[in-house]
Design brief:
disordered N terminus; single chain; alpha+beta; seven-stranded mixed β-sheet; six-stranded antiparallel β-sheet
């Protein structure tokens, strides 16, 4: 054990973090004023020790906090991950529909919970199946709806995921490539191949849903049919190996979960699990042993006219199993009469040997893959033995995910998936070690495949030689492949090794194992032994039983899914032997050539048939000869196809029975556990098939298929040849390969009531049936059809996880993660913030656009705002009430690992200190001067000047004073709560002027006085003038300090262009002269023209002589009025220069 630990831990020491990566992104934009953004990113490129992560409650706890404040309104659509915290807990989420909609509501819970949909207090939909619920109401009107999640009896706590969305567009049906699935598993060019084939036609092999899971777990599909199309003519003339190939392509989505259901039980215990899965996921992918004795009532000896509509194999009858065939269960019907499945065995003389039928009504509705030759759908009795047995791994594919939520996959098991694995009682921990060879990455999810039911799992991660951190735990109802998204991203620094530990535990008598990648003949080969990559343990301490699994060529199916800034990538362990050279010419291929040629010749012979009896005899002889050729070719093919699976099955059993060097508590399958389930796997059976075929050939020779019409006879003969060809192929088919020794598992009953009938076709969840031709790819056709159903049901619920979250403040800057607010005594300051999600996805569709806000710290100093906002929405996060310090945290409800915080520091402002210079001043009438004022304050303040005797001394907003007449005036400068004063004494300009009642002069001209006295004051970024009587100037022209101003009705000084009557004026927009009426030349950059303003302030129009020169100004009120003409002809025909001047 010490050696084991030494091997793992002799690596460079690199720090790691368990939780959040926080990055500081600061920027400013002059057009928007001071803006600071504090960002939390899912990107591993921006991290540092200077910003440690603070643990934050998960999404479930957040929803619990929200519920304490009453009803929770969620966005539509939404994905909600929350918890049931007690048996009495029930969660309610309300959402708003803006228009009439068809919805899909799904609930997946760790332990049984029910879901209700309500409107105006009335329940309008209920789903109370355990674990997985779905409601699909149609035509819901605009309004507010509420979803209620309720724990079922005896459930104390449970995590769950609730999805609320519109239904997918089911009129546009997906079409996924079956040949690509098979090519990925069997093409020598595929890095994910399970078998190193020796001959080209061996790409046309049988498979199982486990192989499809392997394909999906490695992000190879599904892909569109156009990527690798199959031969769809259905004439059985193709060579499937020609179109089965591997092609690297981006999958339409990721299937991150596949549920393996209980197999057929005579007691019927499996039925409620199948029905529950069909109603939840839309379909179940499975298989069965075929035999043509049981396709119909079989009313006569030999093979009757097959209708392939009803299938039933009695439990106590032995029968020839012609191989496995995969099918898709799309529904059920409890009312299908049992008489339809009556089986009668007769002798050659037609006498009844025995007959039977099911004990009760009811059947599964199944989709076939021989479109045009058999019915697209057929019924299988509930009591049919071997249908959907555990050896055919009944599987349902859970809701898919967007294909860019994770963009790097690590796998040490790319060479296939099998359940032949080491196992242990009660507990087993599997470990995979990976190496990050690129830049920093963020570990976001872990995938694994478990081969037992009702298990608890625990995931731990080690980065470098750091601690083994527990990151996730949960419960599994069924075996299958599962992807677990981690609550927090974990940084994997560049060049660092990391380990994924997954422990499965259950009752002590349960044999627990992972699905694994190892050599099992007929399933997987070419896997190499590479020590130090994969391990098994029987506890967490690691000091008892353990084994280096990869040293023995076994790699448990455990995967790491990460996000990096690079493109999508897959890193796999190079543990597969090279494919080697592939043979081209084979007996099987030659047989197919004979088959195609013979069928074609038969058609030609039929077409050349004449009405004469002689011709008909020739025709029958020719057809008979054609039959024999077909029979010889097909029987040979049948022999090969039947014998090959037989050998493979035996080899698989032998391989499974190999003893390992594991310690006693870790076991593998023993020879006694191997059970041969394939009855046709012998030479004698193959010989019997050939003999039967020969008898049937003789039988067909005695049949006359012609009537009075040669055309009808020809069609009948062509159909007979096609049917016989089809039967030969079906007899030889081994498309669904059964598992020789499946791991038995028990699942507690669901105790549910189901409708008597359910058909996923009624909900437009099933795509068009296809024809697999003479391929063995029924397993791939069934898997592709199941994936198409999964997309139709859940396509609109696929979400993008956001990559980051920005916290933005537009009013108060964020400096080093802190917002500083300065508060006057008795004042309240609102703080407006926004948090915005961002992503690198082409079409960003988060599970929820909502942001949760939490405030911690000196809560008495603030008043909190709403708890939820939309991404990018600016809202009042809090009101500052008094001195203190709080932390404001924004959390993405789409991914609670994305959270960003900033500190808010609230300081009490001290009164401003104002100084004015000079403090005293003597002036003469008409003289002007300036006052210099300085302010010391905690904030930027505006100085407001006022005169107690504006008739003696006037003062403007900039502190410029003008002596108007003899006397004394006090000028006050005020900033905030502080102020200072200057006393000014005004004397006569001339000593002979002895009284104050004569004429006086100002800088503006003789005899022109100000029209009003008072003081300026700022308000809302504008200026207004308060008169001595306390009122404000409004709707009037006023002369103040020798300058004319116009005050609007709202008392604020006008600025810019101003129209009064037929005249236009321009009032200054400059800060120092704001609102002052302008005269003389004016250039307006917005018009890019010159204007002229008369002494009265009115805008000049028409011809004007200015300083002895003539100019023309546009005189028409059409938006151009007042603009000076330049370099153009005036309306009355005169040409002016580019400077506007007219020259004689």
């Amino acid at each position: 054990m010490r050696d084991r630990l030494k091997r793992i831990r002799t690596k460079s020491r690199i720090w790691t973090t368990r939780f959040l990566i926080v990055a500081l992104v600061s920027f400013s934009a002059e057009t928007l004023g001071p803006i600071q953004a504090w960002a939390s990113q899912a990107s591993p490129e921006n991290h540092g020790d200077g910003f440690p992560a603070e643990y934050f409650s998960g999404q479930g706890e957040i929803w619990e906090k929200l519920e304490t404040n009453g009803e929770v309104m969620v966005a539509f659509p939404s994905q909600i991950e929350a918890d049931i915290s007690s048996p009495d807990d029930e969660d309610r989420y309300s959402f708003q529909l803006e228009e009439e909609s068809d919805l899909t509501l799904s609930l997946e819970s760790e332990y049984p919970c029910a879901m209700e949909l309500m409107c105006q207090g009335q329940v309008i939909g209920v789903s109370d199946r355990p674990y997985s619920q779905i409601l699909e109401p149609n035509g819901l009107e605009a309004g507010t709806y509420t979803v209620r999640v309720i724990p079922r009896e005896h459930v104390d706590t449970s995590t769950y995921t609730l999805r609320i969305s519109r239904q997918s567009d089911r009129k546009k049906q997906p079409d996924y490539s079956e040949a690509h699935i098979a090519g990925t598993l069997f093409d020598p060019k595929s890095p994910f191949r399970a078998i190193n084939i020796r001959n080209e036609e061996d790409k046309n092999r049988g498979g199982s849903s486990v192989m499809a899971i392997h394909y999906l777990a490695h992000w190879q599909g599904p892909v569109d049919e156009s990527v690798v199309p199959y031969y769809d003519k259905g004439d059985f003339s193709e060579n499937p190996s020609d179109y089965i190939q591997y092609k690297k392509a981006k999958p339409d989505f990721h299937v991150q979960n596949a549920v393996i259901l209980p197999g057929y039980r005579e007691s019927g215990e499996h039925m409620e699990h199948w029905k529950n899965a069909i109603m939840t996921y839309g379909a179940v992918d499975t298989g069965f042993f075929t035999s043509y004795n049981f396709w119909d009532k079989n009313e006569g000896p030999g093979y009757p006219e097959w209708d392939f509509e009803y299938f039933y194999v009695p439990k106590d009858w032995n029968y020839e199993k012609y191989g496995g065939h995969a099918t898709l269960i799309v529904g059920w019907d409890d009312t299908v009469e049992r008489e339809k499945f009556r089986i009668t065995e007769r002798g050659e003389d037609g006498s009844i040997i025995r007959e039977t039928m099911p004990e009760r009504d009811g059947a599964w509705i199944c989709k076939d893959s021989y479109e045009g030759l058999t019915p697209d759908y057929f019924y299988v009795s509930y009591e049919s033995q071997d249908f959907g047995g555990l050896e055919f791994t009944p599987t349902a594919f859970a809701p898919p995910e967007k294909n860019d939520n994770y963009n790097h996959l690590y796998s040490n098991s790319p060479g296939g998936m099998t359940d032949a694995a080491a196992n242990s009682e009660g507990f087993l921990r599997g470990v995979q070690t990976f190496q990050n060879e690129g830049g920093s990455e963020l570990l976001r999810a872990v995938g694994f495949a478990a081969n037992q039911s009702e298990l608890s799992y625990e995931i731990r991660v080690r980065i470098g030689d750091g601690p083994l951190d527990r990151v996730k735990s949960g419960y599994l109802k069924y075996p299958g492949f599962y992807t677990v998204r981690l609550d927090q991203g974990i940084v994997i620094p560049p060049g660092t090794a990391f380990e994924i530990h997954v422990a499965l535990s259950g009752d002590n008598d349960k044999r627990i194992s992972f699905y694994t990648c190892k050599n099992v003949k007929g399933w997987i080969d070419g896997v190499k032994e590479i020590p130090g990559k994969s391990y098994y343990y029987t506890d967490w301490e690691g000091e008892t039983e353990w084994m280096d699994a990869s040293a023995e060529g076994e790699y448990p199916c455990i995967y790491a899914y990460t996000y990096s800034l690079g493109k999508q990538d897959i890193t796999i362990l190079d543990n597969k032997e090279a494919a080697g050279e592939i043979g081209k010419a084979t007996t099987s291929e030659a047989a197919r050539e004979i088959q195609r040629a013979t069928a074609s010749e038969a058609d030609q012979e039929i077409q050349r048939a004449t009405a004469s009896e002689a011709d008909r005899e020739i025709q029958r002889a020719t057809a008979s000869e054609a039959d024999r050729e077909i029979q010889r070719a097909t029987a040979s093919e049948a022999d090969r196809e039947i014998q090959q699976p037989a050998a493979s099955q035996t080899d698989r059993n032998t391989d499974r029975a190999a003893a390992s060097n594991a310690e006693p508590d870790i076991e593998r399958a023993t020879p006694s556990q191997a059970v041969l389930r394939y009855d046709t796997a012998s030479g004698s059976n193959a010989a019997k098939v050939e003999e039967n075929a020969e008898d049937e050939e003789n039988e067909w020779e005695d049949v006359v298929l012609f009537d009075d019409s040669e055309e009808e006879a020809a069609e009948a003969e062509a159909e007979r040849v096609k049917e016989q060809n089809f039967r030969r192929i079906r007899e030889a088919e081994s498309g669904a390969i059964p598992n020789d020794n499946p791991n038995e598992f028990e699942v507690n009953p669901l105790n549910l009531d189901f409708p008597a009938k359910y058909d996923s076709r009624d909900y437009h969840l099933i795509t068009k049936a296809k024809n697999q031709g003479n391929s063995n790819l029924c397993w791939a056709f069934s898997a592709a059809a199941a994936l198409e159903t999964a997309y139709l049901r859940y396509g609109n619920q696929m979400i993008d996880y956001p990559r980051g979250l920005n916290l933005v403040s537009r009013e108060a800057p964020i400096v080093d993660g802190t917002i500083s607010l300065k508060l006057r005594k008795g004042e309240e300051i609102p703080l407006n913030l926004s948090a915005a999600l961002y992503s690198d996805s082409e079409s960003f569709n988060p599970g929820s656009p909502q942001i949760y806000w939490e405030i911690a710290g000196d809560l008495g100093s603030v008043e909190g705002g709403p708890k939820l906002s939309e991404s990018g929405q600016t809202f009042c996060a809090l009101k500052a009430l008094g001195p203190g310090r709080v932390t404001v945290t924004a959390v993405s409800m789409a991914d609670v690992s994305l959270r960003v915080s900033c500190q808010v520091e609230i300081l009490e402002m001290l009164p401003a200190r104002v100084r004015i210079e000079p403090e005293t001043m003597t002036m003469e009438v008409g003289e002007t001067g300036n006052l210099n004022t300085t302010v010391e304050a905690d904030e930027e303040l505006t100085v407001i000047y006022s005169s107690d005797r504006p008739d003696v001394v006037s003062v403007d907003k900039n502190g410029r004073v003008m002596a108007l007449k003899p006397g004394t005036a006090v000028i006050t400068a005020k900033a905030g709560e502080g102020k200072a004063a200057c006393t000014i004494t005004v004397n006569h300009r001339d000593s002979s002027d002895s009284d104050d009642d004569g004429d006086w002069t100002t800088a503006a001209g003789p005899g022109v006085a100000d029209t009003v006295r008072g003081s300026w004051e700022p308000a809302n970024g504008q200026w207004r003038f308060q008169k001595e009587d306390g009122s404000y100037a409004a709707s009037s022209w006023e002369r103040i300090g020798g300058v004319w101003y116009y005050f609007r009705e709202d008392t604020y000084a006008a600025s810019g262009w101003f129209r009064q009557g037929d005249s236009w004026y321009y009032l200054s927009r400059e800060a120092e002269t704001f609102g002052g009426m302008q005269t003389g030349w004016l250039y307006d950059p917005s018009y890019e023209r010159w204007f002229y303003l008369e002494e009265s302030g009115t805008m000049a129009v028409g011809w004007r002589q200015i300083d002895g020169k003539w100019y023309y100004f546009h005189a028409v009120s059409d938006g151009e009025m007042g603009k000076m003409y330049a370099g153009e002809r005036t309306p009355d025909g005169y040409v002016v220069g580019t400077d506007g001047e007219w020259s004689h």
